[in-house]
Specification:
DNA-binding, 8 helices, homodimer, 171 residues
Chain lengths: 171, 171
Amino acid sequence: MNDSAVKDLERHEVTVSPVEKFREYLGTRGKRLTQERETIVREIFAEHEHFDSDQIVSRLTQPRRDGGRVSRATVYRTLSQLEEAGLIRKVARSNDREVYEHDYGYPQHDHFICEKCQELVEFRNDEISAVLERVAAEHGFRMSGHRLEVHGICSACAKPPTRRHRKLDMI
Amino acid sequence: MNDSAVKDLERHEVTVSPVEKFREYLGTRGKRLTQERETIVREIFAEHEHFDSDQIVSRLTQPRRDGGRVSRATVYRTLSQLEEAGLIRKVARSNDREVYEHDYGYPQHDHFICEKCQELVEFRNDEISAVLERVAAEHGFRMSGHRLEVHGICSACAKPPTRRHRKLDMI
DNA sequence: ATGGATGCAAAGCGTTTGCATACAG
DNA sequence: CTGTATGCAAACGCTTTGCATCCAT
């Protein structure tokens, strides 16, 4: 992909809504944008937070004020397709569940994962991609992306224990 | 950890066998090095290859010439402990299974994961850890390690398709 | 001796799937 | 209309666990 193509893509990304982007993807595959799928996409892109399948299921499985309810099966099926469509991506595993995040309209970044509180903290660093591009090229590997989890203790958990932290530790 | 401590660790690593290292770990925890555990460690460290739980289970579950057979449950229980002991670590997920590799007596490295053939290819690059150390420090994050998967197409799969590749592609 | 470890089978748990029914295009 | 999609519940596949028995220390 050349530079102007990249620019087109970027412009596209910030212009088209997630739902529209998904509709386009579905269209090219002879698939349909159903109410259920739209409900799921709206729910997921309502805010930029990490999430797992079960969170979405519990939010959409019980009757809702606006969009109708969506079954567990449909949530799973739709998450897979959203991933194929490049709207979301798996960033980590936590509690035996895949953790997703937005991969559309959001800049490339990686994560710290705290071993104490399990919190995911995003960080951006362009050097990493640059190094990876170079290393991949050296190995004749055609890189399409990467997944990087940096494990350790976050600043909050590293601080001298307070009442609040103690409590959490004792669970 | 200072330089001489690092050197001690390295010397230690190449001197003590995986089984001994495991015995040490178990000892400090009031646990025992049983025949089953030793069999598993020997099997795993017989060669430096990536592996998943099921591979070990199938190799040790059926009666064996030397070491006795080991149950599925014990393999799983022991793999967890080997991970805690720092002898092995999870490097990826493939086919819904955790993929492990030796984390003892082997230098730090990361992996390319081919999206076509699923092959894991190791690569070493010291810049990455260096960058991560720095970024972690900037964020007040106390880094203990990282897991990096670089996704894309490996050189073999990227080559112009041969008869052999075509066949594989059509599966 | 005796508290930890094993084996077996059953349970767990996230995820997938078969099938009858309900829609989007 | 017609091929897709949904919902439900059952099936799946990896992993964990309860319990009676066994064994390393």
